[in-house]
Write a structure and sequence with these properties.
Blueprint: E1 12-25, E2 28-40, E3 45-53, H1 56-69, E4 72-73, E5 85-89, E6 92-98, E7 105-106, H2 109-118, E8 123-129, H3 133-171
Parallel strand pairs: 7-8
Antiparallel strand pairs: 1-2, 2-3, 3-4, 5-6, 6-8
């Protein structure tokens, strides 16, 4: 009998919610399970996926593959976020704000799991409006995407300023 070698996983997976959904068809009702999964490496990469199948393990596997396809890279500032943001997706609002070291993750269930998978250790959050897990997960990802865009824009602006200063000193 061959021994199995343990390979460390690249990403940590976590199931946010499992829901039973039904579709009414001609012969009756067709029941499936919908699973919302978050995947992250705790170093700035995170993804959220939805899987639907007749059995829960298959739905979880589909959700994990969907989450790995939709990975988002986030730049962190130490153990927190570099900027604050307020984003809306559907009826769910999510407010993300950087916090001082030692604060911890002050967040609700869905947002907390996503922040843990990103690798953020200090953040203040507030979810407003809808408490639907899918809406909050997409709003959180949109907020992280907005923070990443702000980080990129700020980096480009700093490069432009340093380039302008260098050009100014060359002409003198």
């Amino acid at each position: 009998m061959a021994r199995r070698t343990f390979e460390p996983k690249e990403y940590e997976e976590s199931v946010i919610s499992i829901d039973r959904v039904t579709k009414v068809v001609k012969g009756g009702k067709k029941m499936k399970f919908r699973v919302l999964v978050v995947v992250g490496n705790k170093k700035g990469k995170v993804g959220v996926g939805i899987g639907k199948a007749v059995e829960i393990p298959q739905a979880i596997q589909k959700g994990i593959t969907a989450a790995k396809r939709n990975l988002l890279t986030v730049t962190l500032k130490g153990t927190t976020l570099p900027f604050s943001t307020k984003t809306r997706t559907g009826a769910g609002w999510v407010f993300l704000q950087p916090a001082v070291a030692g604060t911890g993750i002050v967040a609700g269930g869905v947002v907390r799991q996503i922040m843990e998978k990103v690798g953020v250790q200090d953040v203040l959050t507030k979810s407003l409006g809808s408490s639907n897990a899918i809406s909050l997960a997409t709003a959180t990802l949109d907020g992280l995407r907005a923070i990443e865009n702000m980080t990129l824009m700020r980096g480009l602006r700093q490069q432009e300023r340093s380039g302008a200063e260098q050009r100014g000193t060359e002409g003198a």
